[in-house]
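Retry 2 of 3 after timeout on previous attempt. Resubmitting structure tokens to design endpoint.
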């Protein structure tokens, strides 16, 4: 029993020594290694201390309902909003002004009107409703801007090669 205690104590001492030796190597100041300066520590080739000025983008001045539907990169992509949205914000559960025009279940599945002189109501998708009878909007779908974004003149950050 005494031998077992001695072996356990020696094992504990050996483990402690191994850990402290490894920690000393990590924290050592090896004169052969180079420190990474702030210009090379990330993917960007600019200093992390620079404060970039973002480009100001403009949104369409088209009135809601009198503009063309925007093309989508793939079928399941939520459509972009082809009009300004500032006057409809904030979108909250108690006040969602998007539904004033887009909560029109009777238009689901109908072709959109191409005559730009007549107001064109683009209906929400069936999956935005809580039930099959399309009476109530799903509580999880009230925040339109979570998926839909207004179209702007912003250039793509990365070229889209998806087909």
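Retry 2 succeeded. Sequence:
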């Amino acid at each position: 029993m005494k031998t077992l205690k001695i072996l356990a104590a020696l094992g504990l001492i050996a483990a402690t020594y191994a850990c402290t030796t490894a920690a000393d190597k990590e924290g050592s100041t090896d004169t052969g290694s180079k420190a990474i300066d702030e210009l090379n520590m990330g993917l960007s080739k600019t200093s992390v201390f620079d404060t970039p000025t973002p480009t100001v983008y403009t949104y369409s001045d088209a009135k809601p309902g009198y503009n063309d539907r925007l093309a989508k990169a793939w079928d399941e992509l939520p459509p972009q909003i082809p009009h300004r949205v500032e006057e409809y914000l904030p979108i909250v559960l108690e006040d969602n002004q998007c539904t004033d025009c887009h909560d029109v279940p009777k238009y689901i599945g109908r072709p959109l009107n191409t005559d730009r002189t007549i107001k064109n109501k683009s209906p929400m998708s069936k999956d935005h409703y809580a039930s099959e009878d399309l009476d109530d909007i799903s509580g999880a779908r009230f925040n339109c801007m979570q998926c839909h974004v207004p179209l702007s003149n912003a250039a793509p950050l990365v070229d889209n090669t998806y087909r």
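Attempt log closed. The mean pLDDT is 78.
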